[in-house]
User: Fold this.
Amino acid sequence: MPRLPRLTPLEAEGLLLRSGFVLLRTSGSHRIYRREDARVVLPFHAGRALHPKIVKQVMEAIRDDDR
Assistant:
């Protein structure tokens, strides 16, 4: 299985917005995006890369649209 890329919150946000997700709301340092039945919570912490599990969730949410 190929390794997941290291993403910053801004890079992940760009991927989500380009695939049709919209910003639903902000709760503290987390932003919640939604598209149809899919929901992704993205933590925005300055200077930190996203955890690989979060990157995997983002990639799976984007990929579900491609099917």
About this structure: The chain has a mean pLDDT of 90. The first strand starts at residue 22 and ends at 27.
